[in-house]
Design goal:
heterodimer, A: about 120 residues, mainly beta, seven-stranded mixed β-sheet, four-stranded antiparallel β-sheet, B: about 110 residues, three-stranded antiparallel β-sheet, about 0% helix, globular
């Protein structure tokens, strides 16, 4: 059974930093790209970032480019999101999602999310 | 403003069929067969319902189907059931220089 478990979400002040983690199990982690997707309270889904199976390629939404860094440790079956220079608009539930493995990126498994609140 | 346009809400009675549209551009929906659809119940994580325009993952009811025409993709739910009441989001690969994946704003489905 595929499981994705996020952690690291807390309340942080504007301008602060945070590192989210996602522990994966139930599939061959290093065979798949992985994503972070976020959802602000009461709002829709927003794709945040993507990392290739080997970590060699990374992509970011314009809203987080230059502030967030995605990474992975295949030896630990773990995905990370380093978040710097946080803003109020980064407040959201952050989901870790497994890529479906096709050519065009879709999310076939999701974690339950970890809540990041940026507030003074 | 979301990159893909969905109606804010749709409704239908049990047993009826409904269709949710998802309109993009030739850089996303219209340019690739990489549209996916997600169901989200309140307080829950999204669930993949359709991928690559019209493919259903194992375990998803065949009452759910997807299609595409030009820059608009559609999700059809037939034989509506009470448990189908949820938010639905479309998503597409995009060749935009600033994004790799775009979502629609979401559609609230109400089963009357």
């Amino acid at each position: 059974e595929v499981q994705l478990v996020e952690s690291g979400g807390v309340v942080v002040q504007p301008g602060g930093s945070l590192r989210l983690s996602c522990a994966a199990s139930g599939f061959t982690f290093d065979d798949y790209a992985m994503h972070w997707v976020r959802q602000a309270p009461g709002k829709g889904l927003e794709w945040v970032s993507l990392i290739s199976w080997d970590g060699g390629s990374t992509y970011y939404a314009d809203s987080v480019k230059g502030r967030f860094t995605i990474s992975r440790d295949n030896s630990k079956n773990s995905l990370y999101l380093q978040m710097n220079s946080l803003r109020a608009e980064d407040t959201a539930l952050y989901y870790c999602a497994k890529d479906g493995g096709g050519g065009g990126y879709y999310f076939d498994y999701w974690g339950q999310g970890t809540l990041v609140t940026v507030s003074s | 403003q979301s990159a893909l346009t969905q109606p804010a809400s749709v409704s239908g009675s049990p047993g009826q069929s409904i269709t949710i549209s998802c309109t993009g551009t030739s850089s996303d929906v219209g340019g690739y067969n990489y549209v996916s659809w997600y169901q989200q119940h309140p307080g829950k994580a999204p669930k993949l319902m359709i991928y690559d325009v019209s493919n259903r993952p194992s375990g998803v009811s065949n009452r759910f189907s997807g299609s595409k025409s030009g820059n608009t993709a559609s999700l059809t739910i037939s034989g509506l059931q009470a448990e189908d009441e949820a938010d639905y989001y479309c998503s597409s690969y995009t060749s935009s220089s600033t994004l790799e994946v775009v979502f629609g704003g979401g559609t609230k489905l109400t089963v009357l």
